[in-house]
Amino acid sequence: MTVSAPAASNVATRHVMQANKSKNTKPEKLVRAGLREAGLTGYRLHWKAAAGKPDICFPGRRVAIFVHGCYWHRCPHCDLPDPKTHADFWNAKFARNKERDARNRADLVADGWTVIVVWECRLKRDRVQATMRQVVDIVNSCPSGRAGRRARGEGRVVEAGVGGWQLRVWRERVSRVRR
């Protein structure tokens, strides 16, 4: 059962919510600029052939990058307050977002992709260089061409910008059948 969106409490709130973009956000542009600066070009944006249409995708290396906004995807590093109005609607929406994100990551990992999750808070002024160094290192560690292809279930999920990325790599073995 889906909960329909409640009416906005006022016109200004409605306009603010409508102005939220899903593509080409500032954090996404920062990551793309960092990749270009490192000489990593040839990526696809919102590539429909990959599960979940990752924000940035290197098909030859089988690397998918999701740049998540802390509020909409409920960042595990930020202590975000819950909305005070229409709490049931928002909590259900956030839960659906998190479920969709997990499903997309699992589908990509099952197909042998390396999935990099970059949180908006890890792109703030004092952290952006370290986070981008980690993202570039991860992308460079994935060979391109035939050597870059991994067997089904050999993918991994990496959260960039948190400590040493080698310590934050989770190998996920997924043996479910694709729908």
Strand-helix topology:
Elements: H1 11-18, H2 26-37, E1 44-45, E2 56-58, E3 63-68, H3 70-73, H4 87-110, E4 114-119, H5 128-140, E5 156-160, E6 169-171
Parallel strand pairs: 3-4, 4-5
Antiparallel strand pairs: 1-2, 2-3, 5-6
Helix pairs in contact: 2-5
Give descriptors for this structure.
single chain, 179 residues, Endonuclease, Chain A, 5 helices, 34% helix, 14% strand
Describe this protein's structure.
The chain is an alpha/beta fold and 179 residues long. Strand 2 and strand 3 form a beta hairpin. It has a 6-stranded mixed sheet with strand order 1-2-3-4-5-6, sandwiched between helices. The protein has a single domain, classed as VSR Endonuclease (Endonuclease, Chain A). Helix 2 (26-37) crosses helix 5 (128-140). The radius of gyration is 17 Å and the shape is globular. The protein has 5 helices and 6 strands, in the order ααβββααβαββ. The two termini are 22 Å apart.
Summary of the model, kept short:
The protein contains five helices and six strands. It has helices spanning 11-18, 26-37, 70-73, 87-110, 128-140; strands spanning 44-45, 56-58, 63-68, 114-119, 156-160, 169-171.
Going across the major beta sheet, what is the strand order?
A: 1-2-3-4-5-6
Q: Which CATH top level class fits?
A: Alpha Beta
Strand content: 5-15%
CATH architecture assignment: 3-Layer(aba) Sandwich
Provide the domain count: 1
Number of helices: 5
Listing every helix as H and every strand as E from the N terminus to the C terminus, the arrangement reads HHEEEHHEHEE
How is the biggest beta sheet arranged? 6 strands, mixed
Low-confidence stretches: 164-179
Q: Within the CATH hierarchy, at the fold level, what is the topology?
A: Endonuclease, Chain A
Oligomer status: single chain
Question: Could you state the CATH homologous superfamily?
Answer: VSR Endonuclease
- Average of the residue pLDDT scores: 81
- SS-based class: alpha/beta
For the termini, the CA-CA separation is: 22 Å
What percent of residues adopt helix (DSSP H or I)?
A: 25-40%
Q: Total number of β-strand segments?
A: 6
